[in-house]
Amino acid sequence: MTRFARLLRRLPRLPYVLVTILADHWRASLVLPLLASCAIIHHDSPPAAMITPQQIRLADDIHLANEGWPSARWWEQYHDPQLNTLVDLALARAPTLAIAREHVSQANAQVELIRAASGLQMSALAETDREHVSGHGFLSAYASHDPAIGAYGPWYWTGLVGVDAHYDIDIWGKQRDLVRAAIGEQNARRAEAAQAELELSAGVAQLYYSIQITYASLDLLRQLREVRAFEFDTRSARHERGLEALTQSADARAQLLAIDQQIASSEEQVVHAREALRALAGAGPDDLPAIAPVPLPAPSVSLPSTLSYELLARRPDLQAMRWLVQASFDKIDSAKAAFYPSFDITAFFGFNALRMRDLFMHSSQQINLIPGLTLPIFDGGRLNANLHGARTASNTLIEQYDQAVLDAVRDVAQSGSEIDDIDHRVHLQHERIDALRFASDSAEASYQTGLGDRTSAIQAKAPVIQGRIELVRLTGDEIEAGIVLTRALGGGYRSDDLPGDLASTKAH
Matching Pfam families, A to Z (predicted)? Predict the structure, then answer.
């Protein structure tokens, strides 16, 4: 495409006066040589390939229910007022969100700064100067004292006061492209703030349920300790009567001490998780509400029936990268526009006098109107280097975006597959506990009917309790995987203000 053809494509964006000028044949003939002498674009590469919708899908061997995407306040599905309070506290006070919001504010200021540079610039100025005129310069006549010509030299108090204005005529859209790029980066920062909210709410939920899982395990560990303590007391009594060797009593004591160690470790885990939760929420020593044990929720997770481009709108991190890619295209357009002539107008209105007492006389009035044209011809490769840098940065962002999309699909697939696997193991664990409970109930029945001793009946409870501890751990893993899946699906985020289909940007 010739430069003049590119010029004609830009005609709808030109001011009316310039369109009239270009429409006039003889004036257009003056513009053509100017355009022909512009710097030439060398070796601009095409944009990197974008990911296709076919790659944004899950394998068919994940069998979760297809019930749609997470809701905006997804953590409320657990129906736990304590969790709701903690998430709301974190969203209101967490330092990470404050940082993200500052980044958004900084991006807003950058948009305003670039937009301001594209408008009319006006400034008032006033200055005075004590000047000694050279007898050998352009004003040498004023170096002597000659009132006939207004010379009272060689010393003068000169003065200047007025209004200065400057306006760049953005014919090729260079400045408009920079504004659009800044707006794209601003939208990316907003999406990053949404990602920070998602990470924060997911982190709070994970820490909260790690505490609840530990509470549930502690309760079962204390029950198991009662069994081990009874067994130790029984064997100690038998040893004292000479009915058993010391070895069996020592073994029972070792098992009791192992349970005590697990209880102490679990209590310490609660303290660590609570402090991590306090730091994440930005709460002070007395600001975090007490966390009481509650029944664990029944895990309920599902996958949407299809991912495709919907995942791009649901994941704030992908949406942020998408905006950055879009902004990179605008920067490329701005870099290309720098190859064409630029037009500006500078104007001045005010008063200028060689003597201060003459400054505000009508004869001291000064008016300047200076249309300007800057034509890049030889720049040592600066413009091409700038374009190459913009193109390389854009292609890098596209490649990072493609990889991030594939990673997002992988995260969803892995979380869904993990939940499938845990759900199967939970089902098997329930069957195992039922079998262990049957054996325990049989031992208890034998004891009640006098066919067995109490020690055997108590000991038969230990495998059941240990099975329930394992079930609690699996339930915790399933809750954790559900939170991870929710985060992989973007939480409740949904962008309705999408940039154009990036797959159609090969014209850039």
Answer: OEP
